[in-house]
Amino acid sequence: MPAIIRAYKTVVPEQIIGEKVIEENRKRMKKRDVISGTIAGGIVSVLPGVSSAIATTIALITRKERNRENTISILSATNTATNFFVLATLFILLKARSGFAIAISKLVSVEKWDKIIFPYPFNLFLIATIISSLLSYYATLKIGRVVAKNISNISYSSLLKISLAIIILMVFIFNGILGMLILFVASSIGLLCLEFKVRRSVCMGILLLPLILRYFL
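Above: the chain sequence. Below: its structure as tokens.
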């Protein structure tokens, strides 16, 4: 919400796409970024309330030089690694670390992973994760070019209005007036962070300690 509100007056510039630019970006994305992102994703996967954004911040601390390409590659590696390790944590510790892990534990029977062979249905989830990662990679390369060429022709403010309306509607449908009140308070805090140039991830501190204590006790 705060990011959407803050970006309302933003105008997307015309994107420059070419093989030379893409090749330069690929050179900037080093294996070290992928490895550090994967390690960070594995670390935060066992801690409830710690998001992939915080894992990315942890991985970026190890780098002396930072640029947008490094951040994107680390964030992508972290998200992919977190998906795998969160599932592994669910089947090893029988504890759900994230929302989708909780949903999985309620939909299917989770068996403890105490052998070499992957338990059912963890093996199916693992295959689905690998296939979706490969498909999304090549789809991004192909579809991303088309989107980048035409994104400047789309009204960015209209997209933000639609996103804002969907979020408010979903919160009201699933959580009612209380959810709207929490959304308003949380959005106000997020806007204050943006105004004072404070990382919004620090706001997670109010949830981290209680969640971690409840998770392990």
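Residues 156-195 form the longest helix (40 residues).
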